[in-house]
Design a protein that fits this description.
Low-confidence stretches: none
Largest sheet: 6 strands, mixed
Bound molecules: iron/sulfur cluster
Mean pLDDT: 88
Number of strands: 10
Oligomer: single chain
Number of helices: 10
Strand order of the largest sheet: 1-2-3-4-5-8
Order of helices and strands: HHHHEHEEEHHEEEEHEEHH
Radius of gyration: 21 Å
Distance between the termini: 44 Å
Shape: globular
Length: 301
């Protein structure tokens, strides 16, 4: 039987940046995880699915890889990448224990574009190159830039001999829709615990009118992130690449990293209100604080 590879994905990378110990609890059925319902509702509210579908429509001819199984998705993507010119939606790429799904991947010869699509407004005059007055990356765009930085890092390692370039595709605030009822053409439907977008039949790139998405090159910003430090937890700064590699190794081996106890633990998704009984899901919070502060059950909060 094939052993399942425990990949560090984008979402697990984000989780580890919040607190590395979360990697040990995530996805385990015997641990309480209060984020599961929240993330589904957040995705529904965010509008990202419609924007993602819009991005696909403006790349006609693109091929979607929507298999949930990592190995199947990797195999399909690898086969598509044999072509000289191809656009792939949800392309699956892995390097070692790192795995990403790229919203839109465009290949032309040895040039690869990794395009991350976000339902985030962008105004070229105001937001420019996402840098503040002192040259630092603006905090409201930093998570998106780190997201695409992680993707480019994986793509470069996975696709030697190619030049990989990173882009964010954002909602262009300087444009206004030239078509009435555009959003009604993208209907979000719930299938089990997945959201999908149904596009009104007959919708073509031409029927969408003025393009409402801005494609912004971010290689310079990604270079800054990859050569800099990553904020891990409330107080740590770690070299970005070393942090990614350490998270990937710990997750692949299912090794619990040290907890980072702080006031943020109060909102941790792995926190039960009190010490769980034997038949209840385990509380990551109580394990973390037991380890960090030598707690016993009498210290229950
Ligand atoms: S309880 Fe605190 S230390 Fe433990 S995983 Fe959550 S945030 Fe990290």
């Amino acid at each position: 039987m094939n052993q399942v590879v425990r990949y560090l994905t984008k979402s697990r990378f984000k989780l580890a940046a919040e607190c590395p110990r979360k990697l040990y609890y995530t996805g385990k059925k015997d641990y309480l995880d209060r984020s599961l319902d929240d993330s589904f509702l957040a995705a529904l509210a965010e509008g990202g699915y419609q924007v993602g579908e819009l991005a696909c429509l403006i790349h006609p001819g693109g091929i979607r890889v929507d298999d949930l199984d990592h190995q199947v998705a990797l195999a399909k993507t690898a086969e598509l990448l044999q072509q000289d010119e191809v656009t792939i939606f949800e392309a699956a790429i892995a390097a070692g224990n790192l795995f990403v799904r790229v919203d839109v991947l465009r290949k032309s010869g040895t040039r690869i574009e990794v395009i991350e699509v976000k339902a985030k407004s962008y105004n070229a005059k105001k937001d420019g190159d996402f840098k503040g007055a002192k040259g630092q990356l603006k905090s409201d765009f930093l998570p998106y830039l780190q997201d695409v930085a992680f993707q480019r890092y994986v793509a470069v390692a996975a696709l030697p001999g190619h030049q990989v370039h990173a882009f964010l595709m954002l909602v262009d605030k300087e444009q206004s829709s030239t078509v009435d009822g555009l959003n009604q053409r993208f209907k979000v439907v719930v299938e089990g615990r997945r959201l999908k977008v149904q596009v009104t039949p007959g919708t073509t790139p031409e029927s969408l009118g003025q393009c409402l998405l801005a494609k912004v090159p971010v290689d310079g910003q990604v270079d800054m992130i990859l050569s800099s430090t990553l904020a891990v937890g409330p107080a740590d700064l770690r070299p970005f690449r070393a942090a990614v590699d350490a998270f990937a190794l710990a997750y692949s081996q299912d090794t619990p990293l040290l907890p980072l106890p702080s006031s943020a633990c109060g909102g941790c998704q792995f926190k039960a209100p009190s010490w769980p009984l034997a038949e209840q899901p385990k509380s990551g919070f109580h394990e973390c604080w037991s380890q960090a502060f030598n707690w016993g059950q009498r210290n229950s909060i």
